[in-house]
Amino acid sequence: MKRILYPLLMIGWVILIFAFSFQPAADSSEVSSGFLRIMLETLVPGLMEKLSAEQQDGLHFLVRKCAHFSE
Predict the structure, then answer these.
(1) Residue 66's pLDDT is what?
(2) Which of 16, 28, 38, 61 could link 23 by a cystine bridge, Cβ 3.0 to 4.6 Å?
(3) CA separation for the pair 27, 41 (Å, rounded)
(4) 27 and 35 in contact (C-beta within 8 Å)?
């Protein structure tokens, strides 16, 4: 079972990386902004409204860097 599952997971991960790599920068930024908003609203409701634009940009930068690192 592992001989089939692991290669399939690896192929799926490679496809995911290529799919994200082909996204235009504006689309990628929109996806990560949406992810950040959902994540923060789930963990700490109302936090996004309390953060300044600079703080939101900083968090957005951090989320994007973490996404690149995890890929």
Answers:
(1) 87
(2) 28
(3) 21
(4) no
Cβ atoms of 28 and 55 within 8 Å: the answer is no
Q: Would you say 56 and 29 are in contact if contact means Cβ atoms under 8 Å apart? A: no
The residue type found at 32 is S
pLDDT for position 5: 95
Torsion angle, alpha carbons of 48, 40, 62, 64, to 10: -110
Q: Which candidate, 71, 62, 69, places its Cα nearest to that of 35? A: 62
The answer to whether the beta carbons of residues 29 and 40 sit under 8 Å apart is no
pLDDT score of 54 more than 90: yes
Whole-angstrom Cα distance, residue 5 to residue 34? 31
Looking at residue 10, its pLDDT comes to 94
Q: Can you read off the two tokens belonging to residue 9?
A: 């997971």
Mean pLDDT, the chain, rounded, equals: 88
